[in-house]
Amino acid sequence: MNQKTYWNSASETKEFTTLLDINTLKEHLKPEALIIDYGCGYGRTLDSLWQQGYKNTIGYDFSEGMIQRGKKTFPHLNLRVSKNNKIPLESNSADMVILFAVLTCIIDDKTQTSLINEIERVLKPGGILYINDFLLNTDERNKKRYNAFYNKYGTYGVFELPEGAVLRHHDKSYIEKLTKPFQTESSTAITFKTMNGHHSNGFVYLGKKLG
Ligand SMILES: C[S@@+](CC[C@H](N)C(=O)[O-])C[C@H]1O[C@@H](n2cnc3c(N)ncnc32)[C@H](O)[C@@H]1O
To answer: For 142-161, what is the mean pLDDT?
Structure first.
């Protein structure tokens, strides 16, 4: 299934759960900071930020359904449909880019790398990339599906869900390589609840664009 079709079909029903650490964010950002949420879904993270006084925000998502739900649920937010993994903003313009559970939806190294480069382009020097995403698990259920789809996708950690999503859990050393353009401020291993109610290894990463 085309992945945009899947995310459109999920747009009315799924609840996303990875957590925004507002205290960490406040350490890095003034209230007027321009914050971009890429792959913003229905905008729940930007609404949390809005409630905390961060109102200069834009959310992008390639799923029209997600953006429609967001506009209905949170009409005060600036939510837009994105295309081709691009962020249509000037270079050096954003103070923070949030990327929560989006890498997991982009299964190939090349597309992930070009998205990270696009994020680096739009961030100001000193701007922050804030990622929450999934790491490889070692339990039998996960190992079975990583092995089952390894031949089809060529990357250990990629798997299909019966409902049509193709997702990726990442090797920690791969994430270190992917985020190389940034200076790591913190990188913490954590357990997340997934959108289907399971638990998965994950990480929270904050990196700074060097000036
Ligand atoms: C698991 S959801 C997380 C949504 C949101 N970040 C959150 O934490 O609430 C992943 C989102 O990424 C979007 N997405 C997946 N691939 C994308 C891409 N290549 N470009 C833009 N959005 C994408 C999906 O439509 C979906 O809304």
So the answer is: 97
